[in-house]
Amino acid sequence: MHETELHRLIALAVFVGTYVGLGIGRLPPFRVDRTGVAIIGAAVMVVTGVIPWDRAVAAVDAHTLVLLFGMTPRSARRSRWARSSWAG
């Protein structure tokens, strides 16, 4: 099997596995949530050589990360407030 064909098969398997994990929402035997599934999928793509490290690093957008990390505390606080208001 040619190397590019092998990379395509690995990429397809990782893609399908990642989307199944995201669809389920949690992998109970491994106690991994959606974020963990996505990180594992990305790591497998880099470790197997499907995506070179340089391209993986270049694909990360710093502005998006700042936005996500900035919204996380607000989202957690809002979620906590919503649970307490529903409890009555």
Mind explaining what this structure looks like?
The chain has 88 residues and is mostly helical. The chain folds into 2 domains: 1-51; 61-88. The protein is 78% helix and 5% strand. It is built from 4 helices and 2 strands, in the order αββααα. It has a two-stranded antiparallel sheet with strand order 1-2. The longest helix is centred in the last third of the chain and has 26 residues, at 62-87. The relative contact order is 0.08.
Summarize the structure.
The chain has 88 residues and is mainly alpha-helical. It has four helices and two strands, in the order αββααα. It has helices spanning 3-24, 34-47, 53-59, 62-87, and strands spanning 26-27, 32-33.
Helix and strand arrangement:
Blueprint: H1 3-24, E1 26-27, E2 32-33, H2 34-47, H3 53-59, H4 62-87
Antiparallel strand pairs: 1-2
Helix pairs in contact: 1-2
Low-pLDDT runs of 5+ residues are none
- N-to-C order of helices and strands: HEEHHH
Helix content: over 70%
**Helix-strand category:** mainly alpha
Globular, elongated, flat, extended or rod-shaped: what is the shape? Answer: flat
Q: How many H/I helices? A: 4
Main sheet properties? 2 strands, antiparallel
Strand content: under 5%
Radius of gyration: 18 Å
Tell me the strand order in the biggest sheet.
1-2
Q: How many independent structural domains? A: 2
The counted number of beta strands is 2
Distance between the termini: 62 Å
Integer average pLDDT: 82
Keywords for this structure?
88 residues; mainly alpha; 2 domains
